């Protein structure tokens, strides 16, 4: 719930920042032009240069040729961890079944030793599972880092070519409405540059 509140605050701050920027740029552009008799100008006659671009970051990332390679490596690594986890789980289950079958016949010292061994094995398996998840997450971040850097560079290049002040990510329904007359869709242009 805190994360949702934090996300809502970030969206609100983004909207406020965008509104301030748009109003500032609108004032700056209007003041750079010759004075206009606003009483005789209709709203339809006023034209704007887009200063905001938009795109889907995830769709561009997933469309990158190296993304498929990185995800295939990630899947291979995940499968290796899952195979090892299955092996250690099967080993634990086998030892636990042996323990259950023989516990009535074991002397107290052997019973306590086997219980301790099972507890330690369970602890090690839980630790391995957590380390595996951490390793997978780190490996994915490292695999995607150069892709994200390349994508950021392409987005900046495309935005600069259009002299845009802001590029908005349309993922996760972060933008509810985009006026195509005031904003510029950068998806196709960025995609073409990524494939160069």
Can you describe this structure?
With 196 residues, the protein is mainly alpha-helical. It has 2 domains: 1-47; 48-194, Protein Binding, DinI Protein, Chain A (2-Layer Sandwich), CATH 3.30.910.20. The model is unreliable at 27-36 (pLDDT under 50). The chain has a 3-stranded parallel β-sheet with strand order 2-1-3. The protein is built from 5 helices and 3 strands; from the N terminus they run H-E-H-H-H-E-E-H. It has helices at 2-32, 57-63, 65-102, 108-161, 187-194, and strands at residues 52-55, 166-169, 183-185. The longest helix is centred in the C-terminal third of the chain and has 54 residues, at 108-161.
Layout: helices, strands, pairs:
Elements: H1 2-32, E1 52-55, H2 57-63, H3 65-102, H4 108-161, E2 166-169, E3 183-185, H5 187-194
Parallel strand pairs: 1-2, 1-3
Helix pairs in contact: 3-4, 4-5
Report a brief summary of the structure:
The chain has 196 residues and is mainly alpha-helical.
Low-confidence stretches: 27-36
Across the major sheet, the strand order is 2-1-3
**CATH C-level name of the largest domain:** Alpha Beta
Termini gap? 42 Å
Number of helical elements: 5
**Element order: H for helix, E for strand:** HEHHHEEH
Going by CATH, the architecture of the largest domain would be 2-Layer Sandwich
Described by its quaternary structure, the protein is single chain
Shape: rod-shaped
Biggest sheet descriptor: 3 strands, parallel
Features:
196 residues, mainly alpha, Protein Binding, DinI Protein, Chain A, 5 helices
